[in-house]
Design goal:
Structural class: alpha/beta
Shape: globular
Strand content: 5-15%
Strand order of the largest sheet: 3-4-2-6-7
Distance between the termini: 39 Å
CATH topology: Rossmann fold
Order of helices and strands: HEEHEHHEHHEEHHEH
Largest sheet: 5 strands, parallel
Number of domains: 1
Oligomer: single chain
CATH superfamily: P-loop containing nucleotide triphosphate hydrolases
CATH architecture: 3-Layer(aba) Sandwich
C-alpha cells in the first residue's frame, strides 16, 4: 500500500460524487491537522456570509467503539448530511463544508499503513464505493491545506495541549495521513483545487491567501 494505491482510490471514489445544478457553490476544506483550516473557515464564512457544515465529531463515545465502527459512523453521517448541503445550494448560498468522506479515508489509510494491516481500509473503501455511490455532492472548490507533520503537531500542543487520541501525536501516522492527501487530492472530483503548504505561514496568513484564491475561483 503506497502512493499508487492512493491514486487508484481517488479514481475509484470519484463516482460517489454528483455535480449539482444549483446557483450556490460548495467549497470543501480538507487537509492536515493544524494546517490552519479552522481559522480559514471562519474567515471565509464572514467574507461570503456562507453556510458552514461543521466537521463531523464522534469523539464523545469513541472509547466505546472500535476503529471500524467509528469510521462506519462517519461514512453514514456524511451521507445523511447531504440534504443540508443541497438545501444551502438551492438557496443560492455558498456552502463551506469542513471535511468530507476524504478525511475518513485518509484516517483509515494512515491507520492501515501504521498497523501494516490493509484489510480495514479495503473494507471501508469498498463500503464507501457501495453506499455512497452517486449520493455525495461534488464540490465546486476543494481547498487542501498541508503542513509539515512536526510543525503541525507543535502547533496543536501550543494551542490545545497534547492530543486526546495519541495516534495524532504519532509522526509516522501523520506522514501516512498526508501521503494519502498528497496523492489523492490532485485527482479529486472538483472544478477547482486550491492547494497550499502552510508550514511557514501563520493561520491568519493562510486564511488570507486561501480567501483570495477562493474569491478568484468564485468570480472568474
Amino acid at each position: 500500500m503506497g502512493e499508487s494505491n492512493c491514486i487508484s482510490v481517488s479514481a475509484s471514489f470519484a463516482k460517489c460524487f454528483v455535480p449539482h445544478k444549483e446557483r450556490g457553490r460548495l467549497v470543501v476544506l480538507e487537509g492536515s491537522p493544524c494546517a490552519g483550516k479552522t481559522t480559514t473557515l471562519s474567515q471565509l464564512k464572514k467574507c461570503y456570509d456562507g453556510i458552514v457544515v461543521p466537521e463531523l465529531d464522534h469523539t464523545g463515545e469513541a472509547h466505546l467503539l472500535t476503529v471500524g465502527q467509528i469510521q462506519s459512523w462517519y461514512l453514514v453521517a456524511e451521507i445523511d448530511r447531504q440534504p443540508v448541503i443541497q438545501q444551502g445550494l438551492m438557496q443560492s448560498r455558498t456552502v463551506f463544508q469542513d471535511r468530507n468522506v476524504l478525511g475518513t479515508l485518509a484516517f483509515s489509510y494512515a491507520s492501515a499503513r501504521l498497523s501494516r494491516s490493509h484489510a480495514p481500509f479495503t473494507r471501508l473503501l469498498n463500503r464507501t464505493l457501495k453506499d455512497a455511490n452517486r449520493r455525495l455532492v461534488r464540490p465546486d472548490i476543494l481547498v487542501a491545506l498541508y503542513v509539515d507533520e512536526a510543525v503541525g503537531l507543535d502547533r496543536r500542543r501550543r494551542l490545545s495541549g497534547e492530543p486526546l487520541d495519541p495516534i495524532w501525536a504519532d509522526l509516522d501516522f501523520l506522514r501516512y495521513h498526508a501521503e494519502f492527501y498528497r496523492a489523492a487530492i490532485p485527482l479529486f472530483p472538483a472544478d477547482t483545487l486550491v492547494v497550499l503548504d502552510t508550514t511557514n505561514l501563520t493561520p491568519e496568513e493562510t486564511a488570507n491567501v486561501v480567501e483570495q484564491r477562493v474569491r478568484r475561483a468564485l468570480f472568474r
